[in-house]
Amino acid sequence: MGSSGMLARRVVETEMPIMVKMQELIRGAKNAMSLAQGVVYWQPPKQALDKVKELVWEPSISRYGLDEGLPQLREALKKKLCLENKLHKSSVMVTAGANQAFVNLVLTLCDAGDSVVMFAPYYFNAYMSFQMTGVTNILVGPGDPTTLHPDADWLEKTLSETKPVPKLVTVVNPGNPSGTFIPDPLLKRISDLCQDAGCWLVIDNTYEYFMYDGRKHTCVEGNHIVNIFSFSKAYGMMGWRVGYIAYPSEVEGLGAQLLKVQDNIPICASIISQHLALYSLEVGPEWVTERVRDLVKNREIVIEALSPLGEGAVQGGEGAIYLWAKLPDQYVDDFKVVSWLAHKHGVAVIPGGACGCPGHLRIAFGGLTEDDTKAAAERLNRGLEELVKDGMLE
Ligand SMILES: Cc1ncc(COP(=O)(O)O)c(C=O)c1O
């Protein structure tokens, strides 16, 4: 078959990313409110935006910058990593968001045909990054049925029995799609298992500041660990596209390899966005935690809305901006339910099947103000009551 035939086949076989499907669904459903996308409702700090406005005429803003990021931003991030995350031996590369950071890492650390490990329910973009970069054997481990914590006993067995040893294990902490927080002892155990097996551990800390009920986010550091962070949610900078990789400085060649990938994808993260990130960092994490504190109200509103699903159906929500809910047993085809909720009840949520767990829903509670969350939650509640009582009536 010619190369164009190959391309056509791949395009046909490849399923649309879930967020693209959701955007289409929301466009097609009249006035649907979204509890689907993982976003926050706030904008970046005003003082940071005001400063950035003054920069647009600077010639350096329109040029390429250093591949690894603005030196002053990297310096500030190194300080932040030491102070807040207790990461003292890490180098920093700034990326166009945490998703690009993850792709960089998969391209750097994995080869086609490798096996890798993640846990269900998983972050769909991480899964797709593995798929599109040629990793063929994606081992999906279970979460604890109650806490949804990654099953470390399963990991121990899998790492010892899979030959060749999986190249990389990845976790999101706190999690997307469940909002489950991985407590420090479990994170350390996962890290030790990876170290003993000789595989990488990649931790996505996108929601580091999004912790509720007195829980505290922690990081682990080691020469087998790479941590990913993002400005998107914390500082309301989704569209500015800034994230970063904290990788072990002592591992020879890792930085060079990451730079090779970086130079071929974004070259550098947007320069003006990096300045906004720096100004936002100067405003400080209290600005973020103040906003996160208020999200508890949204979380409660959504939990209440999910009550028709019954006791024990709702899990997660310890951190991040997500709740995870089990549909009644007969609704394994969760996309059908999601589509019905959007068209009939005007509210969009994510189907659990996109995260490896059909029959579930992911509900995001950070994207709307409290009043709008109430309005969206009312629709969700009405829809779920009807679903449970009468099924999906048109
Ligand atoms: C776990 C996780 N990682 C990465 C991202 C993407 O972040 P960014 O906008 O920095 O690419 C998201 C966004 O939803 C996420 O939930």
From TrEMBL:
Pfam families: Aminotran_1_2 (PF00155). GO terms for molecular function: pyridoxal phosphate binding; transaminase activity. Keywords: Aminotransferase, Pyridoxal phosphate, Transferase. The keyword Magnesium does not apply. Its cofactor is pyridoxal 5'-phosphate. InterPro entries: Aminotransferase_I/II_large, AspAT/PAT-like, NHTrfase_class1_PyrdxlP-BS, PyrdxlP-dep_Trfase, PyrdxlP-dep_Trfase_major. This is Aminotransferase class I/classII large domain-containing protein.
